[in-house]
Amino acid sequence: MKIRLFLFMATLFVMQNVCGEDKFGQQKERWLQIAQENMPTLQKRVVEPLRVVEAVKDEKVFQGWTYKTSSFRLEDFYKTNFSSLRSITLDFGEHLTGYCTIRLKTTDRTWDAPTRLKMTFGEVPAEMNTPFDPFPGGLSRAWMQDETVEFMEVDMDREITLPRRLSMRYLKIELLGTSSGYNFAIDKLYFTAQSSAGEVQTSLLPTSPKMFRDINEVALSTLRECMQTVFEDGPKRDHRLWIGDLYLQYLANRYSFRNYQLTKRCLYLFAGLATEKGILICNLFELPKPHAQPSTYLVPYHLLYIATLLEYYRDSHDRETALDLWPLCKVQMEDALSFVENDIFNTSKRPAWLFFDWREGLDVNACMQACTIDALSNTYALAQELGKQDEVKEYPALIRRMKAAAKKEMYDKKSGLILSGGNKQVSVLSQAWMIRAGVLNQKEGQRALRAALSHPEVVMPGTPYGTHYLVEAMLLCGMNEEAKAYVEDYWGGMVKKGADTFWEAYDPQDDFLSPYHFAPLNSYCHAWSCTPIYFIHKYPELFQK
C-alpha cells in the first residue's frame, strides 16, 4: 500500500511540473554555481584503533550488546598470523566518518591464492552483533556496512583504501578465505576521518552541570560528523541533504561551529534544483552531480527553508543572499497556501507526504495548520527585514484568520487540548506546533502540553526531530524546568546508554524502535538529533547554571 501511494505521489508531482516555462530559468544555473563556489574544505585526521574488544550479551544495556576490552593486546594484533585469529573486533574509541585503509604482510611461506576478508563497520555494538541476513529492513540492504575485500597481491608497500565512505566506531575483520599454505598479518590499519565543521567557536560556563556538558559534547560530535560537503542527515545512511535536518543543524551550528559558508552552499543547492514551477524538492544528493530526488515533495520542509534563510540572514547579515533567494521563498509560501480553504490547510487535498515525525498513526492536520501559520510569520518577518513587506502585505491578516480558524476548529476549551483530525487525536506535536505558531498563548500552551503529556492515549514523538519541537514549545510557553528535565532525560538517556553521537530514532521505552523495521539499519549519528547544542547555549541561565 505504501509503495503504491508513493508511486502515485511521485507521478502526480512530476505531472504538475512537466509543462510550462521554468520560473527561475537561468537563475538556477547561477545558484548552482554559487553553491559550488562555497564548497567547503574537508579537514582530515588519521585515527588508529584504540583497543581489541569482545562482544558481551547483556540484556541490561542498550539493545542487549556491549563490548569489553580483550586480553589480546592491540600491539600483538599487528604481528600475529591472522589465519590463526580468523576474526577480530577493534574499537576506534569515537565515532568517525571517512575512509578505512588496510595493509597486509606475509609472515610465512608464499602467497598462492587471493586473500579474502570481510570487514563490518558499525556505530553501536548491537549493529555489529545482529545478523543482517535474511534482511528484514525497509530500505536497501546495501546500506549495511559490511564489505568483502580481496587482496590479489600482498607486500609491505601496498595499502588498500576502501572506496566506500564509512561511518563507524567499531570494525570487525573476518577471514573468508586464503591459501592453506600461506600466513599473513594485518600490518597496518587506520581510518582517515573527515569533516568540514572546523573549530568550535563557543564554550560552556564553568558552572555547567556535568550531564549537560556531556550532552553538549555528544551533540557536537553528532553535528561535526554530519558536516561534510553539505549538512548531511546521516553519514552512515542516506548521505543526503534534507531541508528539515538543515534547519535544525543550522540552529545548532549557530551556537557551535558558526560555519555560515556551508549553510549558504546548502541554501543555494536547494534553490538551483527547484522544479520548473520553482517548488523546492525536500532532499538532494551531490554525486555524481547535484540532483534532487524528484518524488519528494514535502510542504512542511519547503516551509522550513524560509525559516532557515531567515535565521541565516539574521546571523550572517548576508543581505545579498537573502534578497537573491527571497522570490523562491515566496513561491514556497504561495504553494502551501494553495491548499488552504476557508483559512484551514486542507490535508485531504495534499499531493504528497506531510512529515513531522517518525511515529506510526500521527495525525498531521493540526501540525500542518500551525506549520503554515508559522511560515507565514517567518515570510513576513523576512520581508520586513528586506524591505519587501508590500509584496506580502496580506499576510498579517491571513495569519490572524488562520489562527482564529485553528482555535475554532481544533481547540477544545474544556480539556485545553488541540485535537487533530476527524478522530480528534491527542498528540504532543499538535500542541507543540500550535505553540510555535502562536495559536496558543503561554498560559494555554502550558495547559495543553501538560494535559497532552498526561493523557492516556497521547501520541508521543518517536525521534529527536519531533522531540526538538516539544522542548522548544516548553521553552516558548515558560515551562523551563520541564524543558530542562526533558533534555536531561531524553538526550541524557542516550548518553547513559552509551551514545557517542545521538541517534535517528529513540524511544526511552523501546530500544529497538526503527522506522525501517530493523534497528541496525537506523542511523546512530543523525543530524536532527544535535539540537541540545541550541537549547544549552541559547538558554545558559537554565542549562549552564
Brief summary:
This protein has 545 residues and is of the alpha+beta class. The protein is built from 18 helices and 16 strands. Strands 1, 2, 3, 4, 5, 6, 7, 8 and 9 form a 9-stranded antiparallel sheet that branches. A 3-stranded antiparallel sheet has the order 10-11-12. Strands 13-14 form a two-stranded antiparallel sheet.
Topology:
Layout: H1 2-17, H2 27-37, E1 43-47, E2 51-57, E3 65-69, H3 74-77, H4 82-85, E4 87-108, E5 115-122, H5 125-129, E6 146-151, E7 160-161, E8 166-177, E9 183-195, H6 210-226, E10 241-242, H7 243-254, H8 260-272, E11 283-285, E12 291-292, H9 299-316, H10 319-337, E13 340-341, E14 344-345, H11 365-386, H12 395-410, E15 411-412, E16 417-418, H13 428-436, H14 442-453, H15 464-476, H16 480-496, H17 532-538, H18 540-543
Antiparallel strand pairs: 1-9, 2-3, 2-4, 4-7, 4-8, 4-9, 5-6, 5-8, 10-11, 11-12, 13-14, 15-16
Q: Roughly how much helix do the residues carry, as a percent range?
A: 40-55%
So what's the CATH class of the largest domain?
A: Mainly Alpha
Q: What's the CATH architecture name of the largest domain?
A: Alpha/alpha barrel
What's the count of strands?
Answer: 16
Structural class estimated from helices and strands: alpha+beta
Q: DSSP helix count?
A: 18
Main sheet: strands, sense, barrel: 9 strands, antiparallel
Q: Over the alpha carbons, how many angstroms does the gyration radius reach?
A: 25 Å
**What fold name goes in the CATH topology slot of the largest domain?**
Glycosyltransferase
Number of domains: 2
Oligomer: single chain
